[in-house]
Structure to design on (344 residues):
């Protein structure tokens, strides 16, 4: 085995055998550890080191049982300190120093709370200055601000969120437009797992790892600077001033992604003082729109949406059913301010 760092996912903790995501900067599609290392004499030492890191959440360094090599392993911690999403591991001769660890970071999406979290390591990968770090965001912020340049598989990623089931996985190569202007190709892998809250309630969480695989221009699988897909051309052609379009989860009525720039004044980010929402007196109307959309493919109505300052914004809503994949649908929603606009 070449003395390179292995990136190993541990999304399920010690309950499931970990798999390899990368050897150095070369992606692997969640292959078994033994398929990369072979069944040599130090395989048990590697698996033992991974388990120790997952349980202890601290780096591990030890000699193999043969005494001829050493194992070094570092945890990739989720924001908040646990669980360990992955392990960066190196096996080499006793007198050899490992190369620098490739840039990688952990993230997760709590689907029940509609909140995404990013580790400090991931923010370093993004080139974000430490004084501007924000570790938690509303789920819809994942696709905002042009930082992540998705590929044609973006709808599959959205479908995983909408139609989440424990065990569902997704891998893709996207581009990160770093805050310092550098474009890097990144590979990410994620799995949806079922977790238990301290109160005993079950929640679905998507656990993921993103890692750097090189300059965006040098990676064929990375999207080009300005990908031009037919669907994007159609959406761009239909853009109009004073009209804001968004993709919405039909089951939760929550925003997944803005197609255009965000609607000014509406609450939608985690950083606002007031959480996004629909006025409680309009919830019955919203459910009626959802039912109409499911039955006929289109729906129209008027809803009061939470404003960023805590008030309410009255908006005309026009929705059309859209397919994310052959099993998953969402709503393409167009918003315009009603004549009254802002209301109490």
């Amino acid at each position: 085995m070449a003395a390179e760092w292995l990136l190993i996912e541990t999304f399920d903790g010690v309950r499931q055998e970990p798999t390899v995501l990368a050897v150095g900067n070369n992606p692997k599609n969640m292959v078994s550890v033994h398929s990369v290392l072979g069944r040599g004499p130090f395989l048990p030492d590697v698996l033992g080191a991974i388990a120790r890191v997952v349980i202890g959440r601290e780096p591990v360094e030890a000699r193999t049982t043969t005494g001829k090599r050493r194992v070094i392993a570092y945890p990739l911690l989720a924001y908040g300190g646990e669980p360990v999403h992955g392990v960066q591991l190196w096996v080499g001769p006793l007198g050899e120093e490992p190369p620098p660890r490739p840039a990688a970071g952990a993230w997760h999406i709590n689907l029940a709370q509609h909140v995404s979290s990013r580790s400090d390591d991931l923010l370093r990968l993004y080139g974000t200055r430490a004084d501007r770090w924000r570790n938690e965001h509303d789920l819809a912020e994942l696709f905002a601000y042009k930082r992540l340049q998705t590929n044609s598989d973006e709808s599959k990623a959205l479908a995983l969120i909408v139609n989440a089931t424990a065990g569902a996985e997704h891998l893709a190569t996207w581009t990160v437009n770093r805050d310092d202007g550098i474009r890097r190709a990144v590979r990410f892998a994620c799995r949806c797992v079922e977790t238990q809250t301290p109160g005993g309630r079950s929640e679905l969480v998507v656990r993921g790892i993103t890692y750097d695989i090189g300059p965006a221009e040098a990676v064929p699988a990375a999207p080009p600077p300005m990908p031009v897909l037919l669907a994007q051309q159609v959406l761009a052609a239909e853009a109009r001033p004073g009209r804001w379009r968004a993709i919405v989860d039909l089951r939760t009525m929550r925003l997944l992604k803005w197609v255009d720039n965000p609607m000014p004044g509406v609450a939608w980010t985690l950083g606002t003082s007031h959480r996004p929402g629909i006025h409680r007196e309009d919830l019955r109307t919203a459910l009626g729109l959802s039912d109409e959309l499911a039955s006929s493919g289109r729906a129209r109505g008027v809803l009061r949406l939470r404003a960023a300052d805590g008030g309410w914004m009255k908006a005309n809503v026009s929705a059309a059913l859209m397919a994310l994949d052959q099993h998953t649908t969402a709503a393409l929603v167009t918003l315009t301010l009603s004549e009254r606009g802002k209301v109490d």
Remarks:
- Residues 42 and 48 are 10 Å apart (CA to CA).
